[in-house]
């Protein structure tokens, strides 16, 4: 691939506090061929006006009710015209100005279908304070049965594969990202490379990181995703990952390599 256009999709709903950081981190990327798409769920907090204030810097902006985050992501993918698609949530922002440049270079120099890297979780108020860091470097596809996956917000993939392999399943509440990564990377064995660097900073407090009940739903959906895709697992293996997390966290005495799920 020579001239590569990267479509970055941001899904938002009432994110007026944080989406400005998200947008600025996209617009300050050094890579010139970025299509930036924002899908808003009909916000009522001033988000719409804020996004519109950036004018033509936003390639495509849609604000209307949707059927949840994964439906909104699918809407963005269907609007995208880039060769590569990636997602940057409205609470998140790129790690530095060269992330997309490095991603595009990897696609340009290799015969691959996807790239993923690392993600760091930061304090909601003091975003310079790293709370957890997850490296996707130790990931391999056999870890799906334990509920592990590479950092989904760092996943950049050829847009054409969504038409071929399917979109995010909107009947999942939390784990449609896990199911899609499992389907793309494990079932269909697409070619991927790991890029050792943080792609983005994520403010703490995502949907799947809030409560014990959310963890229960998450693992129930991960089990379902494995079953639907013919992966042998059980709830013991899925919950065993929390023991692994604990050992990794205390064993390292720092926040690096702390598992993502």
Give keywords:
261 residues; alpha/beta; 9-stranded mixed sheet; 8 helices; 9 strands; 34% helix; globular; disordered C terminus
Q: Could you walk me through the main structural features you see in this protein, from its secondary elements to its overall organization?
A:
The chain is of the alpha/beta class. The chain contains eight helices and nine strands. It has helices at 19-27, 47-52, 69-79, 99-109, 160-165, 176-187, 212-228, 235-252; strands spanning 6-12, 34-40, 60-63, 84-87, 92-94, 114-122, 130-134, 156-158, 192-203. Strands 1, 2, 3, 4, 5, 6, 7, 8 and 9 form a nine-stranded mixed beta sheet that branches. Helix 2 (47-52) links the parallel strand 2 (34-40) and strand 3. Helix 6 packs parallel to helix 7. The longest helix is centred in the C-terminal third of the chain and has 18 residues, at 235-252.
Question: β content, as a range?
Answer: 15-25%
Instruction: Give, in order, the helices and strands.
Output: EHEHEHEEHEEEHHEHH
Overall form = globular
Proportion in helices = 25-40%
Can you tell me the residue ranges where pLDDT is under 50 for at least 5 consecutive residues?
A: 257-261
């Amino acid at each position: 691939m020579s001239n590569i256009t990267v479509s970055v999709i941001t899904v938002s709903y009432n994110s007026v506090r944080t989406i400005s950081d998200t947008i600025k981190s996209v617009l300050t990327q050094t890579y010139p061929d970025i299509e930036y798409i924002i899908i808003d769920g009909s916000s009522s907090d001033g988000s719409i006006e804020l996004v519109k204030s950036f004018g033509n810097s936003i390639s495509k902006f849609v604000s209307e009710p949707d059927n949840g985050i994964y439906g909104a992501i699918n809407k963005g993918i269907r609007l995208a015209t880039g060769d590569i698609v990636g997602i940057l949530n409205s609470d998140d922002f790129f790690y530095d100005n060269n992330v997309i440049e490095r991603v595009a270079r990897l696609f340009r120099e290799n015969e691959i279908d996807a790239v993923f890297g690392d993600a760091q979780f930061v304090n909601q108020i003091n975003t310079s304070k790293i709370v957890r860091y997850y490296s996707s470097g130790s990931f391999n596809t056999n870890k799906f049965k334990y509920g592990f996956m590479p950092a989904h917000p760092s996943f950049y993939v050829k847009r054409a594969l969504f038409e071929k392999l399917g979109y995010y399943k909107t009947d999942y509440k939390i784990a449609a990202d896990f199911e899609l990564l499992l389907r793309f990377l494990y079932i269909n064995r697409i070619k991927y490379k790991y890029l050792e660097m943080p792609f983005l900073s994520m403010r703490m407090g995502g949907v799947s990181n809030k409560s014990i009940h959310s963890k229960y739903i998450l693992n129930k959906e991960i089990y379902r995703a494995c079953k639907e895709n013919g992966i042998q697992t059980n709830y013991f293996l899925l919950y065993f990952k929390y023991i692994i997390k604990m050992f990794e966290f205390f064993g390292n005495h720092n926040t690096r390599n702390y598992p993502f799920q």
